[in-house]
Write a structure and sequence with these properties.
It is built from 4 helices and 6 strands; from the N terminus they run H-E-E-E-E-H-E-E-H-H. Strands 1-2-3-4-6-5 form a 6-stranded antiparallel beta sheet, with helices on one face.
Length: about 130
């Protein structure tokens, strides 16, 4: 139908990431530039959006960056963020995101961006 948005792709994965992120200490959802981001004390640690029929997310991976970039759906984040350890994942038709793995990486991004006192509240396995 005209005027309707396309159905989101991988809504369960998107929802799982959002729920897991919002459960972390002092996290807030925001929509600067019309895009969903998750912030800890005002600093973005996760971009999470549906765009052009794909689930797109970007996060800072100081430890897992090189491993993550070996995946076909991963690339350095644009706007110079890739040089600072940010990785963008794009999942469209024919891809299969692993929510558990993405949540693990999202927590790495949280730890990289959050103040040390907050980051240490997460267990190493979390």
């Amino acid at each position: 139908m005209a005027g309707t948005s396309p159905s989101p792709i991988f809504p369960d994965v998107e929802s799982a990431l959002l729920v897991a992120a919002l459960a972390l200490p002092e996290v807030a959802e925001d929509f600067p530039w019309g895009e969903r981001v998750l912030k800890v004390r005002g600093k973005i640690f996760l971009f999470l959006n549906q765009y052009d029929g794909a689930l797109r997310l970007s996060m800072k991976l100081p430890f897992s960056r090189d491993f993550a970039l070996e995946r076909a759906e991963a690339r350095p984040t644009g706007y110079g963020l890739g040089k600072a350890g940010w990785v963008t994942f794009i999942y469209g038709d024919g891809t299969a995101p692993d929510a558990d793995h993405l949540i693990h990486w999202m927590k790495e991004s949280y730890r990289a961006v959050a103040p040390k006192k907050l980051a240490t509240q997460l267990s190493v396995s979390a």
